[in-house]
């Protein structure tokens, strides 16, 4: 069984690496030849090119492993997804949360213009990290003294982004684990804060800076809550590669940026309050097995399936279209 899986996974991995390097080369070419003269045109082109790469990973979740991502959202949130700039904040439940975000972005039509705040080391990863760099992801060192200026400059560069984008920010700062939850609970008890049960305590400095800069050109914050049904195994990258399915439930709630307080202290408290509410939401989810809003049908589009099986022809077609 393991040998049979390896005989399939290894060729797929090599194909992804080769096609990814081609995407990187295309991105580098347009970065050198077009971006110095028209940043807007470069971004529009890169959006299409980057999506070719990301769709292969979406295929991995959708069609290879058969992981089902089920969205729960009110009508306003669902209707505006992908039609506006948004700052996305989420709990960090698993090592594939970023892939879950990409799946929702793909369903919303903004996969190629989805951005995130990442660890600085990520940009050195061949193919994925390089493509993220060309797509203007923000890379930080997890030291506020070093990161404050980098974050502010990166956010300011998004003011003239030509298409709706999502910028994902995991304000907990790290992935949820029982050990980290215990540390968060001890800290909360020592500070007289609400004791978390399902989330970590958010680190608000980056969020406050993001809101301070983006409130003038980003209309909304999407509050995302990721949960795994109790009868399902938690999805991991290893399980996905082994073709082991799972189910992920995602609750998404849109907040108008104008709802947030004007002061930095108020914005920080708003973020903390959101995570207290998220903690209670996850308590209710555990008892009911679902979120108390309508489940939205987002399907499993064939676009990623087509790109997976025809990566080179798709890339050649893109180059031809963009050169005309």
UniProtKB/TrEMBL annotation:
Pathway: Lipid metabolism; Phospholipid metabolism; CDP-diacylglycerol biosynthesis; CDP-diacylglycerol from sn-glycerol 3-phosphate: step 2/3. The chain crosses the membrane at residues 6-33. GO terms for molecular function: 1-acylglycerol-3-phosphate O-acyltransferase activity. Pfam families: Acyltransf_C, Acyltransferase. CDD domains: LPLAT_LCLAT1-like. It catalyses: a 1-acyl-sn-glycero-3-phosphate + an acyl-CoA = a 1,2-diacyl-sn-glycero-3-phosphate + CoA. One of its GO terms (cellular component) is endomembrane system. Belongs to the 1-acyl-sn-glycerol-3-phosphate acyltransferase family. PANTHER family: 1-ACYLGLYCEROL-3-PHOSPHATE ACYLTRANSFERASE-RELATED (PTHR10983), 1-ACYLGLYCEROL-3-PHOSPHATE O-ACYLTRANSFERASE 3, ISOFORM E-RELATED (PTHR10983:SF24). This is 1-acylglycerol-3-phosphate O-acyltransferase. The lineage of its organism: Eukaryota, Viridiplantae, Streptophyta, Embryophyta, Tracheophyta.
């Amino acid at each position: 069984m393991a040998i049979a899986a390896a005989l399939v996974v290894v060729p797929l991995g090599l194909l992804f690496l080769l096609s990814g390097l081609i995407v990187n080369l295309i991105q580098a070419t347009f970065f050198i030849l077009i971006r110095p003269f028209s940043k807007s045109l470069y971004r529009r082109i890169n959006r299409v090119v980057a999506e070719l790469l990301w769709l292969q990973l979406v295929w991995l979740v959708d069609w290879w492993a058969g992981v089902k991502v089920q969205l729960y959202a009110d009508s306003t949130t669902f209707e505006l997804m992908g039609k506006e700039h948004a700052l996305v904040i989420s709990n960090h439940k698993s090592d594939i949360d970023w892939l879950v975000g990409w799946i929702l972005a793909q369903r919303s039509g903004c996969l190629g213009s989805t951005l995130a705040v990442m660890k600085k080391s990520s940009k050195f990863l061949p193919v994925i990290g390089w493509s993220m760099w060309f797509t203007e992801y923000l890379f930080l060192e997890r030291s506020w003294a070093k990161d404050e200026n980098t974050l502010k400059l990166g956010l300011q560069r998004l003011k003239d982004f030509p298409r709706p984008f999502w910028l994902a920010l995991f304000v907990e700062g790290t992935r949820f684990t029982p050990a980290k939850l215990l540390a968060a609970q001890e800290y909360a008890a020592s500070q007289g804060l609400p004791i978390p049960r399902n989330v970590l305590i958010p680190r608000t400095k980056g969020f406050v800076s993001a809101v301070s800069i983006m409130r003038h050109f980003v209309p909304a914050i999407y509050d995302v809550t990721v949960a795994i049904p109790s009868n399902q195994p938690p999805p991991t990258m290893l399980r996905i590669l082994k073709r082991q399915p799972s189910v992920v439930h995602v609750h998404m709630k849109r907040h108008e940026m104008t709802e947030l307080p004007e002061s930095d202290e108020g914005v920080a408290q708003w973020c903390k309050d959101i995570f207290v509410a998220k903690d209670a939401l996850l308590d209710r989810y555990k008892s009911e097995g679902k979120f108390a809003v309508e489940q939205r049908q987002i399907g499993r589009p064939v676009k990623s399936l087509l790109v997976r099986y025809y990566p080179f022809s798709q890339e050649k077609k893109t180059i031809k279209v963009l050169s005309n």
